[in-house]
Amino acid sequence: MAIPADSEKTTDQPPNGGSRELKPMEVDIARIVLIGTALFAVAAAVLLPMHTSLTHDGHGRWPWVAVSGTGLGLLGLYYVKRRDRAIARDRAKEADAASDDGSADAA
User: Would you say residue 16 lies in a domain?
Assistant: First the structure.
């Protein structure tokens, strides 16, 4: 169904293909990494006891993939937590600098 040309319907799209300023979406990356790591840990806990039968059936790598995923997830969790602390530290410095500038202007 086509929209008639004389329709008064407006869109939120900028005219002529222009772009709107988009802000990054705030997500809890640490929670996402933690969930993925936990899933890999559960898979490792399930697959490691079955390693002999998996190897016999030609799937001997599966437990080690799960163990590797768990290890890399823990490394990623450390990295994300460290990054979050650095971002918070930078925001605190910016806030202090902004409040210092404001008090200097008032004096």
Answer: no
User: Considering its fold, how many domains does the chain have in total?
Assistant: 1
Range of the domain at 81: 28-100
| Predicted pLDDT at 89 | 95
Record the tokens describing residue 5, joined without a space. Answer: 């040309």
Out of 4-13, 31-40, 86-95, pick the least confident: 4-13
Contact 63, 106 (CB under 8 A): no
Contact present, 30 and 80 (Cβ < 8 Å): yes
Do residues 42 and 63 touch, judged by C-beta distance below 8 A? Answer: no
pLDDT of residue 51: 93
Distance between CA atoms of 62 and 54, rounded to whole angstroms?
8
pLDDT of 59 above 70 = yes
pLDDT for 14 equals: 64
* H helices present in 23-61, as ranges: 29-47, 51-56
3-class SS at 16? helix
